[in-house]
Amino acid sequence: MKLREWNAHLHGLVVFRALLNDPVVARLLDLTDRMEAGCSSYGPVCDAVAAFEAALFEYTTNWGSYLSNAVLEAETICVRQAAAGQLDALLQSALDSELQFLQQLCGLTLDELFQTAYSEQAQRPELAFLPRWQTCELDLAAAYAQRMSEVGKKGYGMFAKHHVFTVENGQLVPVKYPDPQRLSELPGYEKEREKVIANTKALLAGMPANNVLLYGDAGTGKSSAVKAIANEFAPEGLRLVEVKKNQLYQIPDLMDKLAANPLKFILFIDDLSFTANDDNFAALKAILEGSVGGRAQNIAVYATSNRRHLIKETLSDRTGDDIHEADTRQELMSLSARFGLTVTFQRPEKARFETILEELAKQHNIQMPTEQLLLKAEAFALRAGGRSPRVAKQFIEQCEAGVQK
């Protein structure tokens, strides 16, 4: 393939047009543009080669490996249609053609690129000092077909690179460094978490799954359980979207977009509570099966709260001038009733607290006699306001840091 063809095929990408925004591919396109322009001096070409290699070497020295990964993770109209089971024949043809070109591009070397540009002299001694990137041979079409068959687990675009997201201005934003919490690091509430895990497995299997309310005392590991479940099942196609209470009105539009995605999503609302006249109250009711559109089968809402009915109530609410007080109370309680599964995390009794402590001590390799460990931890819990998994972890971390001896 001649330089002009490399350049034209890059500019003519349709299915994989988004690749041109990739920081490395964009540098290669600029390089072929400069070479195609026939610069009389080597400066602009050397500049473009150096810029491309500097961008590539930030990730890897193998161009073929980088490009193939970018292709496999790209979000395209073809992967979206294939995930929905309806890939247009014309798009399939365009996909096959571009994959063939991109496979050739994976094997493109700097010397070959120079040869296509300077056919009268394959080796240019003036350019010999430039580093040579590596390439690799692969069947990109077969790899892409395999990836499309696994799109329900591996995802595409940013969903292939990240598994935890937040919401900003109605758009999903990846969390680059999510909390690495694992289920194995959370001793003491296995029975409570098992209910949530079973519901999550149903969601992943495409079976009916409930919205989940994790209710209970502070510090009992409700939020940690949700994060750990998201980490545990990310390879199975689970993604976590953390939503703040004041963003609830943005969620219906977001859910419409996620409904067509082959992955499964947990919308996570942490530390949820409302006042009786909170505008967000109605927004969440609509999300929890209250709208005419219904709820997408690949989305479930998981919320944590210290309040069983989610509403902050006062004595004046019960002795107010509402004529139909019973109806009002039913309205306030209807929100928590829309969670099909409610799991209670109670403050641990002494035996459970000690079990948590002993397990955490093993995980952190704390060398302290058990009797002494439990005695010091009990005193620490009294000062901290009571027993909880959070208090146990704080005590163990202090032991690890040498504060507790």
Automatic annotation (TrEMBL):
Keyword check for Nucleotide-binding: yes
InterPro entries, A to Z: AAA+_ATPase, DUF815, P-loop_NTPase
Keywords: ATP-binding, Nucleotide-binding
Gene Ontology molecular function: any one: ATP binding
SUPFAM superfamilies from the UniProt entry: P-loop containing nucleoside triphosphate hydrolases
Segments forming domain AAA+ ATPase: 208-329
Signal peptide segment: none
Name of the protein this chain belongs to: ATP-binding protein
Species of provenance: Faecalibacterium intestinale
